[in-house]
Write a structure and sequence with these properties.
Elements: E1 2-3, E2 6-7, H1 10-29, H2 35-45, E3 55-60, H3 79-94, H4 103-114, E4 129-135, E5 147-152, E6 158-167, E7 170-175, E8 199-201, H5 204-208, E9 212-216, E10 230-232, E11 248-250, E12 256-258, H6 261-267, H7 280-292
Antiparallel strand pairs: 1-2, 3-4, 5-6, 5-9, 6-7, 7-8, 10-11, 11-12
Helix pairs in contact: 1-3, 1-4, 2-3
Length: about 290
């Protein structure tokens, strides 16, 4: 089989691919990856080959569990390294002699690649690692403010959203621009807010695993309002409440703020496209339609 333009034997293919991943990381970040960063990339890359991203853990030969000694740079990596890692995982699964490669059998296959001296890590060598283990994701029924969600798109990619607030209106999601090939966290250097106003929705698809929690980064909350409002049009019959000429915004506390024509137009009050909240599937459809209009 050819891997990234080189013909390699099946026995060495794992090592070659892991070595290539560490080289790609080094070229992008400017330093060698820590073992923790390499197995974090591989964990996110398991989605697709497995129903949900897996988590790799390592134990060292001195008997100690491995702990990454540095803050991870994985969230600042570009998509290409995750795409290559996903192709590597997919090859391991497809070339397995077992009908279905289980997560527990995946770890030894990755472990064999770490033994190659061409896999250059910053903190340990493959020979210092005793074993790798794999665990599935923890079930999350109530995500936290600052959690990062991966929402599937019709393109087969994923749109990322930050949980900005949870209040009587629902769960407010701040939607980031663009999509990623693999559901994984991104840092502030790669994130950009695409919609000024967060969308209120529900947690149901998080609980089912359709929307995956892929990280937690409260620094990203600065891209969105901390107390997202809902909007009311002037046609609302609300006795005793002045909704002004163009409508009003309401905070979860009940505070009302009159808005001008520019804000009413921007959020969709004037053309009738604004919705105060979405069921999860409708929010997915709206985001897909927004992509198609680009």
């Amino acid at each position: 089989m050819e891997a990234w333009g080189m013909s390699v034997s099946e026995n060495n293919e794992n090592s070659f691919t892991l070595a290539a991943l560490t080289t790609k990381f080094t070229d992008e970040v400017g330093r060698k990856p820590f073992l923790g960063e390499l197995i974090e990339v591989l964990g996110w890359a398991t989605y697709g080959a497995f129903p949900a991203p897996l988590t790799f853990s390592a134990k060292l030969k001195n008997g100690e569990p491995y702990v990454c000694p540095n803050e991870s740079a994985v969230a600042d990596l570009n998509d290409s390294i995750f795409v290559n890692a996903a192709a590597f995982i997919a090859h391991l699964v497809e070339s397995s002699k077992d009908e279905a490669l289980s997560p527990s059998k995946l770890a030894p296959k990755v472990m064999s690649g770490l033994k190659d001296p061409a896999v250059l890590l910053r903190d340990v060598t493959g020979e210092e690692v005793a074993r790798l283990t794999v665990s599935g994701p923890k079930k999350i029924s109530k995500p936290r403010i600052g959690d990062l969600l991966a929402i599937p798109s019709d393109s087969g990619k994923f749109r990322l959203a930050s949980i900005v607030a949870r209040n009587r209106f629902g769960t407010a999601l701040g939607i980031f621009g663009g999509t990623v090939d693999v559901p994984r966290p991104v840092g502030a250097s790669l994130a950009s807010a695409i919609f000024r106003v967060p969308f209120y929705t529900e947690d149901r698809l998080v609980a089912t695993g359709a929307w995956k929690v892929v990280g937690h980064d409260e620094d990203l909350l600065a891209l969105f309002p901390s107390d997202p409002e809902i909007y009311h049009g002037t046609d609302l019959q609300w006795p005793g409440v002045d909704l002004g000429e163009f409508g009003a915004a309401e905070k979860a506390s009940g505070e009302i703020r009159l808005i001008g024509s520019d804000e009413a137009r921007e959020v969709g009050l004037l053309d009738g496209t604004y919705r105060q909240s979405y069921i999860a599937e409708d929010l997915e459809r709206m985001l897909n339609e927004a992509d198609r209009r680009k």
